[in-house]
TrEMBL record:
Protein family (similarity comment): Belongs to the flagella basal body rod proteins family.
Keyword set, alphabetical order: Bacterial flagellum, Cell projection, Cilium, Flagellum
The protein, known as: Flagellar basal-body rod protein FlgF
SUPFAM superfamilies: Flagellar hook protein flgE (SSF117143)
InterPro entries: Flag_bb_rod_N, Flagellar_FlgE/F/G, Flg_bb/hook_C_dom, FlgE/F/G-like, FlgF, LlgE_F_G-like_D1
Occurrences of domain Flagellar basal body rod protein N-terminal (ranges): 5-35
Entry GO terms, CC: bacterial-type flagellum basal body, rod
Quaternary state and interactors: The basal body constitutes a major portion of the flagellar organelle and consists of five rings (E,L,P,S, and M) mounted on a central rod. The rod consists of about 26 subunits of FlgG in the distal portion, and FlgB, FlgC and FlgF are thought to build up the proximal portion of the rod with about 6 subunits each.
Classification via Pfam families: Flg_bb_rod (PF00460), Flg_bbr_C (PF06429), LlgE_F_G_D1 (PF22692)
Principal place of residence: other
Keyword Mitochondrion attached: no
Domain of life: Bacteria
Claim: Hydrolase is one of the keywords in the record: no
Amino acid sequence: MDRALYVAMTGARATLQAQTNVANNIANANTAGFKAALSNTEAFRVPGDGYGSRIDALHVDQGFDRSAGAQQVTGNPLDISMQENRWLAVQSPNGEEAYTRGGNLALTPNGQLVTMTGHAVYGENGDPMVIPPHQSMEIGNDGTVSIVPLGEGPQTLAMIGRLKIVDAPAERLQRGADGLMRNTDPKQAFTQATGNAMSSGMLESSNVDAAGSLVQMIALQRSFEMQVKLIKSGDENTQSSNTLMRLGG
């Protein structure tokens, strides 16, 4: 009976972890560039002395859904949408380089280019980009940033830098707790993307299937309830067995 309790208990734990992933996906269904987290469970035989009868249900992080989200035309020159396997380099909270496909950018009062979550956007030289005062700005498909200075005509349009957009295969990326992606092999740095790396005036939507995620959440909830019932049944059976043993003694 204790084996059944152990399997049910570890299964309930794995189900709760999967629910957390699905809840996070649903919460980010409207987050630009968000990639849905994937999860699964697998059986793991607990090592140790004696007969190997303890099987643990483990929650397995399977990374993220690599498919592209739908494209939305916004007309905002600070909105960008990266091509496949292209990622925008930003500064993470701990100062390290990280990557995102959330292309809804903004300018701070001092001219620093940041994401909507406040992460500084890197230029191709690896430094945070600062945009001088200007009356218009545009970002080219190769990531070049050009401005028309204040008080000047359109003929003075000049390039001031280039966004650091890297060519990063999804299998070499891992999501951190802050939602940003990291290179799983820092010794092999990602290279600057060349050619048509992005489109401006557009945003990539989240690739989360909201309806499917809600159905998945309901299924996980039912699975959790079934596992809890099994734990309760096992406990009741154990108590009954102990009572019979006392009566028999």
